[in-house]
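Ticket #341: bound-state structure for nicotinamide-adenine-dinucleotide.
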Amino acid sequence: MKIAIWGMKEWEQEYVKGALSKGASDSEIVFYDGILNPDTLPPKNDFDIISVFVDSTVNKATLDHFPNLKGVVTRSTGYDHVDVKECAARNIVASSVPSYGENTVAEFAFALILALSRKVYAAVDNFRETGKYSFEGLMGFDLKGKTIGVIGTGRIGKYAIKIAKGFDMKIVAYDAFPNEAMSQELGFSYMPFEEVLKVSDVVTIHVPFLPETEHMFNEKTLPLMKKGSILINTSRGAVIKTEALVAALDSGQLAGAGLDVIEEEGVLKDEMGFVLHGTPEGHNLKTMIANHVLSDMPNVLLTPHAAFNTKEALIRILDTSIEDIQGIVNGSPVNVIKVKN
Ligand code: NAD
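RESOLUTION: The complex was predicted; output attached.
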């Protein structure tokens, strides 16, 4: 089998080579730096399996380039960057990592919450920039007693609820498929989406990107949020309509936002490449400008899709992806993404 893997650090490459040399010894593995998308297709195209991360785009044009393809292994939980329907139509197995770090991402959501509630970034930056050792202008707010609204109570949302309990927060939640047993067990209540927005001091988003969740936070719903509340997004950028978020922050409806994911984040990774070689089709240039407006706002923290990035989570991701590659090589794939019609 010929396997191509994009975007792995050297230590990850060694780890994968070591593991695959046991389970799939006659495989040829090629590692590529960066991302895979229709603009970065390699000249070599006879691979049986490709493995990518969320910053790649595996769409029809990408798939067309690899006529022998049998498997697409994404080293992520979310798989909206892979056209899974097209894979299924071509008998290509698509697999993802169903779970590698519900604690990892939930911990990062709380890192963003605390950084905003206690103005941690401003405190560090102020001292570094001005040399002034002063807490002037850095008054924050307690989490204890505040209400947190958890949007999406799956694996990561559930862990966020557990952490919120440790902070003595009141917890409310919205999910399209409420888990009543879990709400009893962990002591929180489900409410309609709009109600959660109205009562929460902090809202943290943990839904997948789906047609139903695209721009769930928009010019109609963002103004429903409690005045002065903060919004945290570690799920997928397009769950929030960026321009509407800029407006909600600008008007003071929201006091802050912690965003690990944003629309058009792929372009942000390589703006020079986009300016020199990219085409505007399929991209929203206004959103790209809005991202820069957001990054200049002092009450906004933008992080580069980094919530997954701990040593422990990376090892779990690698182990699952190796299992997925071996499964495809052996004809018994695991963690296959179910295609919804
Ligand atoms: P999960 O599937 O366990 O949970 C998702 C929850 O969302 C489920 O409870 C589901 O019922 C709910 N849901 C689905 N559609 C909904 C809708 N229309 N409205 C409301 N709720 C809906 O997923 P998870 O493991 O908790 O991960 C959540 C998301 O986090 C992933 O899909 C991924 O996009 C994102 N993620 C981000 C990072 C990062 O590094 N920033 C890392 C891992 C995952």
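RESOLUTION NOTES: DSSP finds 13 helices and twelve strands in the chain.
TICKET STATUS: resolved
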